[in-house]
User: Fold these one by one.
Assistant:
Number 1:
Amino acid sequence: MNASSDNMKTPIRIGYTLSLTGPVAENTRTAQLAHQIWLEDINSKGGLLGRPVELLCYDDQSKPETVAQLYRDLLAKDKVDLLLGGYGTNTLAAALPVVLEHNRLMIGLMGLGVNDKMEYPHYYAMIPTGPDPNAALTEGFFEVGATKNMKTVALLSAEAEFSKNPILGAKKNVRKYGLDIVYEQTYPLNTEDFAVYLQDIQNTGAEILFLCSYLTDSIGLIQALHAADFSPKLVGGAMIGPQAASVKTALGPLLNGIVNYEYWMPVKGMLFPGVTDFLKRYQQKAVSVQADALGYYVAPLAYAQLQVLAQAIEATGSLDDLEISNYCQNATFDTVVGSVQFGKNGEWMHPRVLQVQFQGIRDNSIATFMDNSKQVVLCPSEFASGTLQLPK
């Protein structure tokens, strides 16, 4: 699939799916907008290999069986030049067997431990969880608890594919820091009343409440915590929700004290070249397309996902999947989320997961969350902007 002088005006077509409807639609619309900004940028510079670029994106409706069929169609019917991975563990886990079957390259966005079992050599993960992704996501959370002499842990998670790997990682960290699990339960993703779960946890006296949730249930869980007047010493960990602007503004001061993971925040040390300008342009467009108003969680990684692919294409001068993959295995990529190198199973060679605590929030305004003053980075130390506040 090498570029030739005969097809210099033919667009390079990159195909993928996103769950533009379903429980993570706000995050996927964010990814799509970031991809569109990248597309504008790359084509304004003449495209790739002297050819314009097109992105062909289908809505997989958050259904694994739809994901797999759409990836087959992208190859057989649309005959795209290259594939791109969609957003999240559920989508990527459904797409990877198809990609493997056809021996194609895929760079996935924010899927946790997707390639742990298959160990497919041409998969790469745009998520900063490093070579042990399941544990890296929450290690800082449990480390924070252990340093404050907390001992007992309750695990509460949604019944969904995305929650399995964070729970495995949580248990590994519990063992590492000598903690004890006194409660473990899952709940249906459509749960609206969390009171019975919280009462059971309260009865155990757990000091650490580890939650693995999506967007809507994150709101329900935090509201239920306040209604129950239940205050473990440490709450959060693996919630896919508090990163989103809609969840932030829905909860406002109810977020105070919650500790959760993040991948990028506007703190010293993370203002990598190009990221501030990119986010400024992203935020100007976000509201009109119902994407996340801030974009901090998904947008930089989504833009970097295509930066990696573009740099590999230009470096190899090729659209051949295996040539591009071979390059990715040893290269260092310069992106809006900093330097990226890939290692085992296509994961980042060096993990860089943040633990952030919400502090001092007094209203529900989006302006409250524009900087890091109310979202304090606790660790890693090189990015820390404050210290843990325990409930009074």
Number 2:
Amino acid sequence: MASVRCLLMHMNFFRLSNERIHINLLPPPPPPNQPQQPQSMPHKEISYLADLQSIDPYDFPTNGCLCTVTIARLIADAPWWFPSCTRCGKACTAEGNTFRCYQCDCSNYKYKYKLSFIATDGTAEAEMICFGPVAQRIVGRSVDSMMRTVRRDEDFPPDIAGIVSHKFTFAINMTSQSFYTRIKKYMVTSIITSYGRQRAIPRLPAPAPAAQPSEQRRDTTSGTSRTLDKHALSIVSELASQHQTPPASPTTAETPAKEMPIRHVTESTSSQSVKKRLTYSNTTDDEVASHSSQAHVFS
């Protein structure tokens, strides 16, 4: 038996010696206590809201932008929660006392945050919205605990109303609604930095004072009225000088003899009025006597 075993071992040795054996080497293990370096994200510059508002929705960067803003106020009458489908994550529709997702025909749902607010950085204001974990990080509480403590007589719970005046650096992207309306709306995709509550909310710069046409019109009108007053005074003074009362004694008035009107002897007292004096004729006494004699012959 021992001789047979030795013979078999020799035969296997000669068979293996004629074959090629491939040995796969494993990669060396990483050195211990050396943390793995995270993948570097593409660098994004922080933009102002005024610059973002001037960008056309079709020219907005596809990877989003960064902006540092302060939450100025919450949008009234906007729900801060919604029932989310556990299968597709979209909003469910109310069906009796429960909710159902008609897109995937699922009746399983859970509550998620949906925060809508106005943010500002001092250059402009913009409407922003955030969902789920991003909104939960802003509020600091889970939506389930918030739903248990909510009251029916309040618009927003105190913890949600307390996010006003908090400052963040957001990574935002433009919503699909901005392509169909004039009002641009942004969705917060992640929170880069949280600065906490601020003492004051940045205010927008005051607009340039416009010209006040009422004051200019008032100044122009006052200047015209002053000019008219001076002109009226001059006219009144001229009229007063023309219609002065004649002197009491007519002998004191010095009038040249050749300018004295010729009056008829039989002129009545009514012809001595102002109107009569202005319509005296230049006929002589001989012409008047001839006219009177002809009238006597024909009579």
Number 3:
Amino acid sequence: MSRKVLTLISFLLIICFVNAQNYEGKLNKEQVEVLEGLFGWEKEELIIINYRQPKGYCHYDQYMSIGSTKWFDDFYSELNLKDVHNIFVYYESKRSKGVIDGKKHFFDLNKYFFDNFFKKDKSCYGLLIVNKHGNYQQKNGEYSKKEVKNYINKLTIKK
């Protein structure tokens, strides 16, 4: 690749990480029960919701290669997800209908996640990890394996 292309890619990645916002909070019992019912989150201690923002919130078309999950498969293969329910939720229902299976890939029904978690920050992706007590960690923007691992460790219920 040319030096200009590499510089541009580096610049865009820096913008993504600088603009990323972190949040934490607590869902009430009813909200946890809705997540359990809608997404088949049963016995796992945590649920990871990988959220794809509206196309207009992103500086590139993050829906372009939506049919391939290889990147996320590789990303999560190095993390211990033994007691974790990992799903993907999409804002753009028309652009993502080819991957929606109701098991691991879902529409953002009534734009619940967008309105309640991701609307406040324009980014390409978002991450929401919730434990059975309703405690959550959230990141709006690009996220790393290390961040996911740290959030999992923070939210893991000690027995």
